[in-house]
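Sync notes, pocket subgroup
Present: LS, DG
LS reminded everyone that the earlier model was apo-only. Rerun requested with nicotinamide-adenine-dinucleotide included. Inputs:
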Amino acid sequence: MQTNQVKERLLIDGEWVSTKETHKIYNKFTGELFSEISVASEELVDRAVTAAVTAYKKVAFAPDERYRVLMRVAQLLEQNSEQFAKMIAEEGGKPITDARTEVKRSVATFQMAADETKKLVGEIIPNYNAQGRFLYTIKKPIGVVAAITPFNFPLNLVVHKVAPSLAAGNPVIIKPASDTSTITVKLCELLEEAGVPKGYAQCVIGSGRTVGEQLLNDQRIAHYTFTGSPGVGKHIQKTIGLRKATLELGSNSATIVHDDADVEKAADKLAKMAFAHAGQICISVQRIYVQESVLDRFMERFLDEVSRLKVGDPLNPDTNVGPMISEVEAERVESWVEEARQEGANIVTGGKRTKNLFSPTVITNVKKGMKVVDEELFAPVVTVSSYKTIEEAIDLINDSKYGLQAGIYTADLNLSYRIPYLLEVGGVVINDTCCYRTDQMPYGGVKESGNGKEGPAYAIQELVETVTVVVNIEE
Ligand SMILES: NC(=O)c1ccc[n+]([C@@H]2O[C@H](COP(=O)([O-])OP(=O)(O)OC[C@H]3O[C@@H](n4cnc5c(N)ncnc54)[C@H](O)[C@@H]3O)[C@@H](O)[C@H]2O)c1
Ligand SMILES: O=C[C@H](O)CS(=O)(=O)O
């Protein structure tokens, strides 16, 4: 598989298409040209949707065939895992060790979706109060799906949409983030090689303003599965009217360190997860709340661990923190940190920028109203605050427009069972950080963090229509 410096094409209606307009993608660490991608014209996007509609109506893709194809993609991906990991590191800037994990997870996501093809069953409805009728449901593919994806997990978050869509029997049109789209093109090559029927998997690359908007306004598309920023998520929901969307959006996720916890263990793990992929993870640890009595102990260990993080070349296996996606994003974070400093925050370590590399930054003495607390940072920056009572910590977490995941370190079993009911989030992690996800779990947020759940078994339920059948069995 060739990656660098090749003019990449788009998979549309079973054909590989080159266009005059291209998008240049650069290596996020070296700044060198990585690839040049064809950009979909209005006519090509239209052709992709037409092909998907035709495939949905006319091309059989039975569940057993879907199973075989999805398992074959998983196998091909595994065989090409190192090339994909390298692409994620170069095109996406993710440290190679984490990039390898992403590929491994993507293989598993395909396998899990394949398994779901065997479970697509409806149910028999009790005929209580409906004598003379036999009632049951069937699960029908919902129709054409548009998968719109972000830059930060350029493989696995595409797979989390493509695999369940295909498992459900839906044609899927992928519109990835342009700056990490070579990976989608390469994935489409594997989908084709594995035997996905013509029109069932296509990619259209281009900006959200053009290609994205065209997809949103095309009434032939039945479902939008989107991962990205809350602003775009809200816009999608507004634009598509009564059609359905699954929206996985942003967050300012928090983790509590309670005084009965293994404080050192918590500090070590939090130092790793607050800065993983330069903080560009939707459930990245952005706010840490430590109980007052253990704050000094926590800070000593935490800062020591942070000082050991290696920042730099994603291809170096020792690197913990790579570059941010762009200099513009790094500048945004720099200005937010400076703004916090001017408003009284204490920059304990970090706060330095070299082009798109931002040093791991720890901020204390923060308060509500500061962007570093209220908004999604999406950068290697974390705030640490103390609390007196657990009720206070819960209020601090809930006092947010977001609600994706939260974590708590505690030895209190009672509190562990109680707290998931009290936190306004889609997932609670006990004795680990908020930045935990395994691909089979239902995953998704509340409030401005979105709606709907991903994880193949859950995503597939959003991608099928439950049709009720009523049979009159009266004599
Ligand atoms: N909750 C989750 O599971 C999850 C996972 C990863 C990332 N995210 C979020 O994604 C964001 C970072 O990723 P990003 O910067 O790539 O997000 P983004 O919202 O800028 O872009 C995401 C995708 O939306 C497209 N898009 C932009 N404008 C559009 C429009 N008007 N119509 C249709 N499509 C449009 C983009 O081209 C891209 O493909 C963060 O907010 C992060 O929290 C959430
Ligand atoms: O960025 C958010 C993604 O969901 C990352 S992960 O899949 O949770 O690791």
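DG: The CA atoms of residues 236 and 278 lie 27 Å apart.
LS: The two ends are 65 Å apart (CA to CA).
Action: DG to write up.
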